[in-house]
């Protein structure tokens, strides 16, 4: 297996420039985690007080759910805190969790970025697709179909295919035990809010965003990062794409500097909060024209959906049918 080509910081930065970029803060990473939860709480409070704002709250909360996954991704790189034990605790207990499994999987993506062995290659392989195919995917995401297929369909399939003598209740209980945070968190939240008349807060303001808005923006983020990047791309400055993100995009689609994905692949241990500075330095040094960049998310989506309509084959293949390991979605759902 041939690993993807890498770059060395010394090729672009002096030691004085590189040192602050590589430095991990003891408070910035935890502050970003706290920020995500505070925003989620504030959006939930807004929706509970003013139910007319529920659609807005769903988008805000879904964006921060992705934000928590992005911060777990930083923890997988050991970049959320300089103390690795604290880093891993934050990544395991204050973000979606499953850090060890995700780390092993994700570092393989970096090692073989856009090469045949890249476990995430199937996420970018289908592009470009037709505009109709992209619209269908977005509708499936926003309607909850993607969430059901990835999260709940395996349970019903397992019940149908259970072994002789195996009870359906036992299958369901095994499913519940593998997802303690989801079920315990839901039960505790409902128990705390129901006496005040807000029994609906958890299903509407946590589950609904994770079943609708989160899958859609996860898809759009994946498209922006690697869609239409050539397989076996030899240039390490073009293994991933950096996409310009304005305030609205950062609020609802690209939290915590995730849009600086080319810089992240070039220097994967740089904490996310140093990526904008990394970008500015590379631009000042004239490196940016050689990097893969896009002026905005709509530009990337237009490119990713530029396949002629008469070539549409339905676009219905699942990630598993394209050879994508299920773990590719684990931290981002």
From TrEMBL:
InterPro entries: FA_desaturase_dom (IPR005804)
Keyword terms of this UniProt record: Membrane, Transmembrane, Transmembrane helix
Domain of life, source organism: Bacteria
Region span, Disordered: 307-333
Keyword match Membrane: yes
Record's keyword annotation contains Transmembrane: yes
Regions crossing the membrane: 36-62, 182-202
Record-level GO BP terms: ceramide biosynthetic process
Single GO cellular component term: membrane
Molecular function GO terms recorded: sphingolipid delta-4 desaturase activity
Domain Fatty acid desaturase: start-end pairs: 55-284
PANTHER family: SPHINGOLIPID DELTA 4 DESATURASE/C-4 HYDROXYLASE PROTEIN DES2, SPHINGOLIPID DELTA(4)-DESATURASE DES1
UniProt-recorded name of the protein: Fatty acid desaturase
Organism (species): Phenylobacterium kunshanense
